[in-house]
Automatic annotation (TrEMBL):
Belongs to the DadA oxidoreductase family. NCBIfam families: PRK00711.1. It is an enzyme of class 1 (oxidoreductase). Its EC number is 1.4.99.-. It comes from Dechloromonas denitrificans. This is D-amino acid dehydrogenase. Pfam families: DAO. FAD binds at residues 3-17. Oxidative deamination of D-amino acids. GO terms for biological process: D-alanine catabolic process.
């Protein structure tokens, strides 16, 4: 089949790769000049199956109350005259029920484990280089109550097949000695040795190059204006570029536009519960011999991650629900640096930090939408939230199976919308 993929982020590019490997003729459209240039550009860098506990869980409600009115809150909700935001928020509250949380966690772990296996195969077969490290991910806790909740979450994840092990403070420092200056802050942690880290932007560009060499056509600097329906199927996609507008046609269409997916499919009568969660990052260039972590870390109290990418340290995280606003909030930027100094007081850098923000496509449940829509030839691969890098390869491989008429391997709710 001829397949048109809308979006060249890490999810769209992975989808294109696997569809091409399945024998399809694939074209990718994106408004950026290179692949992976928006939400995939400067994210936290973790392939983190261990981060599978959704934001919507029974423990989040008291935290939300604690964070109200704080400009530097890990989760900042800015009320807007936006029905989509209100609807998303109400569905989020429902997903906080214990039964829903367990169901969602099981689905996220299943897809993430599968995705990590697919990534490893790609890396080996294609010799991809993206500042990757296979040293695991260490979650650290600075509040006893948070640590107690994490022990239960780790137990559940082991039940679902993930090696997330609870560790004491001494073990945390053995795993990552750079935390020695913050020993007095720590109460414990958990460690997933099989997790990984790496630069999602570098990976996406490298995979796009391999895909292009394999015959995938990347049509960049093209903005998708609308999808044109034709009865129960899609007739084409209207795009706009430097040479004007044109209608692109194919046998099947994949929407992998992250947070912008709902806007594109809404005129088709598809209500997609995906809302942008703005995440922040700061990238620090490390001085030579600086005492910096080499194991990727997750700070659950602040909802931040710390990832070593070559001679850089990436600190990223938090979620700001403020529509499609991409302005950098200086308070939230400085909160990233403050936490760096608290956990790594001896860290030395060579230059000023590079701040960035991106819109992560969040569903209320943290479970992405992967599957066919009510239109027979329109497919979705979106809504991965904070786990787009983690789930990208598995999502792309599973979608290629679905479109090719095969049953995907992971036990995951591939659902219509």
């Amino acid at each position: 089949m001829r397949i048109l993929v809308l979006g060249a982020g890490v999810v769209g590019t992975a989808s294109a790769w696997y569809l091409a490997q399945a024998g399809h003729e694939v074209t990718v459209v994106d408004r950026q000049p290179v692949a992976g240039n928006e939400t995939s550009f400067a994210n936290g860098g973790q392939i983190s199956v261990s981060h599978a506990e959704p934001w919507a869980n029974p423990h989040i409600l008291p935290r939300l109350l604690k964070w109200l009115g704080r400009e530097d809150a890990p989760l900042l909700w800015r009320w807007r005259a936006d029905p989509a935001q209100l609807s998303w928020g109400l569905r989020f509250l429902f997903e906080c029920l214990p039964g829903a949380t367990r169901h969602n966690m099981a689905a996220i772990v299943a897809l993430s484990l599968y995705s990590r296996r697919q990534l490893r195969k790609l890396r080996q077969n294609l010799d991809l280089q993206y500042d990757q490290l296979q040293r695991g991910i260490l979650h650290v806790y600075t509040e006893p109550r948070e640590f107690a909740a994490a022990i239960e979450a780790a137990r559940l994840m082991r039940e679902f097949g993930l090696d997330r092990d609870t560790v004491d403070v001494d073990k945390c420092l053995e795993i990552e000695p750079a935390l020695a200056g913050a020993r007095h802050l720590l109460v414990g942690g958990d460690y997933t040795a099989s997790d990984e880290s790496g630069d999602a932007h570098k990976f996406t560009r490298a995979l796009a190059e391999r895909a292009q060499a394999a015959g995938v056509d990347f049509r960049l600097n093209l903005t998708v204006d609308r999808i044109a329906p034709g009865g129960r199927k899609i007739a084409g996609v209207l795009v706009r570029g430097p040479q004007g507008s044109e209608l692109l046609t194919a046998d099947a269409y994949v929407v992998a536009l992250g947070s912008y997916s709902p806007q594109l499919v809404k005129p088709l009568g598809i209500c997609l519960p995906v809302y942008p969660a703005k995440g922040y990052s700061a990238t620090l260039t490390l001085a030579e011999n600086s005492l910096a972590p080499t194991v990727s870390l997750t700070d659950d109290e602040r909802k931040l991650v710390f990832t070593r990418l070559g001679n850089r340290l990436r600190v990223a995280g938090t979620a700001e629900f403020n529509g499609y606003n991409l302005d950098l909030n200086p308070v939230r930027c400085q909160a990233l640096l403050q936490r760096v100094h608290q956990l790594f007081p001896s860290l030395e850098v060579e230059s000023e930090p590079e701040f960035w923000c991106g819109l992560r496509p969040a569903t209320p449940s943290n479970v992405p939408y992967i599957g066919r829509t009510r239109y027979g030839n329109l497919w979705l691969n979106t809504g991965h939230g904070t786990l787009g890098w983690t789930m990208a390869c598995g999502s792309g491989a599973a979608l290629a199976d679905l479109i090719s008429g095969r049953l995907p391997e992971p036990d995951f709710p591939f659902r219509r919308c």
